Each structure stands twice: as C-alpha cells, then as structure tokens.
Amino acid sequence: MNNVIDITPENFQQVLQDSQTQVVMVEFWAEGYEPSQQLAPVLLNVAAKFAGNLIHARVDCQQQQEIAGQFGVQNLPTVILVKEGQPIDGFAGVQSEAEIIATFEKHLPKPEDALYEQAVELVSAGDYQQAYTLLKQAHDMNPERADIKLLLADCQVELGQIKQAKILLEAIGLVDQGALYKSIMGKIELAEQAADSPEIKALQKQMLQTPDDLEIKVKLAVQLHQANQIEDALELILSVLYKDLNFGDAKKLTLDMINALPDGDPLKSKFRRKVYGLLY
C-alpha cells in the first residue's frame, strides 16, 4: 500500500524537512475535477515503483489554497518534485506513467543502485554467492553499466563461471579497464592454469583411453569442479547419469554441484531441468 501524505499547514514544514533526505512528489489536485481524477492513479503507480526513494504528498487546492499559492500553482493538476526544500522539476496537466517516469527518474536513485551497493558490501565480506544473485538482478535492469558488469564478472570467477565472466569482460570498454578489470583477468588466468593441473590432465588422458569408464569421468568431474570449471564438470557428470542414473555417488554429486550454484545463475536452472528430465 502506498504511503500518501495529505499536506496541511500543520505538517507542511515536516514534509519540507523530509525532502532533505528523500525526493517529495507533490500532487496539486481538486475534488471533482476530471483531469485530477485521471492523473491520481497514475501517480500512485509511479510512487509505488519508486517506493523507498519517493514520498508522495498531495495538496487539495480547494482546502489548501495558501500552500498552492506558495508553489505558484496556476493549473490543475500540477505535480512538483521537491528536494532539499526546493522545487527541482515538475509538470502541469495529465501525463502518462512513462512520461512522468522519464521526467522524474533522473532525480531518483535507480533500483539497480541499491542492489549494487548491497552487492559491494557482500563482496567485501567474501559472500560472492549472495552478491552474484543481487548483481544478476541489477545487470538485468541495466545491462550497460560497466561497474555492475565488472563486479558480476568478479563474482562469476569466484564461483567458477569462467566462460560467462569472459563474455561479460569482452563488453568492457577501454575506459573501464581499470584495477578491478585487471584483477579479474588475473583470476581468470589462474583459474585456467588450475584447470591444466597434472591431476586433471592425467584423468583426461585416462578418459580418452577408456571412454566407457564412468568412475574416471566422475573423478574428473570432481577435479574440474574443484578447479572452478563448473559447467564442464556438470556436463561431464551428467553424461555419467545418462549412462547409469544410479552409478555410485554421481547423482548426489550432481545435485550438490547444482545446489552450490547461486540463485539467478542460468546454469542452475539449465542443469536442474536436465536432471529433473532424467529423474522424472
């Protein structure tokens, strides 16, 4: 439910005070006036979309003519954005929701900002899995932001999504290839070196020699998973289940690998579907 404030002389100063920390959308309207009634539900939707960052205040101009006069309102409906006690933008007349958002969004924090800030804190605490989930949402909201892409790629590397991280980094322009970019590239190089470990090479050689040996495939899948080659590990261990659904610990290991993936990771839903297709 939207928190709508009806402005009166008694709370007017408090609303101005609130505008020091949040943007206030002041709606000037009149009872029984068709354009006001037409715009009111649209403003409610806008306020709901920016909940937490926008205060929706209403001035009944028939009851509060003095307040309307202080804002210089001449036509109804009129909407004014107030920040730090001062009008910063607005419009008169009926507008669509898209037009209002286009006018106002430059003055308001974007939804992805909060997700990104939370993710930065989680990364600092070493919680890459939770950070990934938030950054994936932020990236879906704004796929062009380099800071979001970089931090998401960093989480992907930490979670073993090397291929996906490399794809994201390909879209980073030269101007954004700073310290974090170079750090991620270094992590990728180390991860790829780990994937070429003697243990992995030996198991790969054995698998070529005895391609029907399911035990070797399971061992190699585990090694690949430990080397953060998550997708390759899952593809390999799934190939074991296709041959023998009840082979050793293969089913449990597969589910453990999938469950370890963060929420929002496309690999999680992709391999869950494959496993459920086998089980059911």
From TrEMBL:
Gene3D superfamilies: Glutaredoxin, Tetratricopeptide repeat domain. One of its GO terms (cellular component) is cytoplasm. GO terms for molecular function: protein-disulfide reductase activity. TPR repeats lie at residues 112-145. Keywords: TPR repeat. It comes from the Bacteria. Residues 1-109 form the Thioredoxin domain. GO terms for biological process: response to stress. Pfam families: Thioredoxin (PF00085), TPR_19 (PF14559), TPR_20 (PF14561). This is Thioredoxin domain-containing protein. It comes from Paraglaciecola psychrophila 170.
